[in-house]
Amino acid sequence: MEDGIDVKNTNRRNRIKVFNKNRVENLTDAIFAFSMTLLVTTLAIPDATTFTSALQIDSVILQILPDIMNYFIAFVLIATFWYIHHLRFHYLRSIDSFLIIVNVILLSFVALMPFTAHLVASFPLSFSTQIIFELNLLVIGILTALQWEYMVCKPLHLTDPEDLPDIIANRTKTLVFPFLSVIGIGLAMIHVPRSAFVYLFVPLFIWIIDLRRKKEADKKIDRTNFMQRI
């Protein structure tokens, strides 16, 4: 009888700790969408009345081109982090208080992205603003990787435990962002301009990870076929 009571109490505690993912997913989508929309405010165009010739207009366009590039980099990065989170929720059946707390902290830094991107656009020659922007992305990257690591360590939240190999592979991909953020901070500290351009290498690193994973899968298949022949 006591064992039955203990089982009921354990189940009750588990129900309290585990939450439905839908509301957290909706909040995440809203914050990401809001941050992506606000990024456009980082682009500032001088008053049209100050232009006296077409040459001046062309000069201004050339001056704001780096800011436009920074805008697209920040937009694509936020969109990429959103995709990673969307993929993460796809694998999750439920979430617990730890994942909620980490997710809320992460969203606070996602919402900060338009501000740090605006700092870089307002003070393009300041390496301190570049470091702040890179630190913002570093924290987002670390928290994202932490969530995937937690999923690997706590597979009970997964919809299908057989997805674990794919989750491990995606966890490896999330480490690309903190890695590049550290490189970007280092470049900014030695006064290399436009350190955010380092994120243009994200597709290259993702391709390398996918290629390596494919080679490992091919080796396992070859090894299995060899053992079957024996």
Structure report:
With 230 residues, the protein is an all-alpha fold. It has one domain (2-229). It is 77% helix and 2% strand. The protein has helices spanning 2-17, 22-38, 54-91, 97-122, 127-153, 164-174, 176-189, 202-229; strands at residues 18-19, 95-96. It has a two-stranded antiparallel sheet with strand order 1-2. The N and C termini lie far apart (55 Å). Mean pLDDT is 80; it is low at 1-11.
Order of helices and strands: HEHHEHHHHH
Find the count of extended strands (DSSP E, 2+ residues): 2
* Major sheet attributes: 2 strands, antiparallel
Q: Estimate the helix proportion, in percent.
A: over 70%
Key terms for this structure?
mainly alpha, 230 residues, globular, two-stranded antiparallel sheet
